[in-house]
Design goal:
Elements lengths: L1 H6 L2 H21 L4 H8 L2 E2 L14 H14 L7 H12 L6 E9 L2 E10 L2 E2 L12 E2 L4
Helix pairs in contact: 2-4, 2-5, 4-5
Length: 142
């Protein structure tokens, strides 16, 4: 692990350290703090409802690079709420872009499924299953 870390370019090392700290805070906070309050502390907005439909990608090399760092860091962690944790950590690292976490739901074979992702300027940031997002309807504020 240390060798892998030391082989990273300095910018990715910095992002990895920051993501590690933020991920620990997100893991601790999700069970204790309301989502909107946690997101606000992280500098991320929780989005309002949007109808299901086509989602366009946010094409930015910095966002893609940071997403790779976050994904690598989270690949060995617990899978529960992974998409929400990913969106919050990634959103914090990209907070200068004024990101928005979206939470969507859909029904598949009678089961309700939920997913969270990050958007910047209404475009999806580094989401591996972009086409699948079209089937989710985002939740409204409660």
């Amino acid at each position: 692990m240390v060798r892998w870390f030391l082989r990273l370019p300095p910018g990715q090392r910095r992002d990895t350290l920051r993501a590690t700290i933020v991920l620990a805070a997100v893991r601790a906070g999700l069970g204790v703090v309301p989502l909107r309050a946690l997101a606000s502390v992280l500098g991320v907005r929780v989005g309002d409802a949007r109808p299901a439909g086509v989602r366009l990608p946010f094409a930015d090399s910095r966002a893609t690079s940071v997403a790779r760092v976050v994904d690598r860091l989270m690949s060995s962690g617990p899978s529960e709420n992974r998409c929400l944790r990913r969106a919050l950590v990634l959103g914090h690292l990209l907070r200068s872009e004024k990101p928005c976490v979206r939470i969507g739901v859909r029904r598949v074979d009678g089961q309700v499924q939920a997913h969270a992702w990050l958007e910047i300027r209404d475009r999806v940031v580094a989401e591996p299953n972009l086409k699948e997002l079209e089937t989710f309807r985002t939740l409204a504020r409660s």
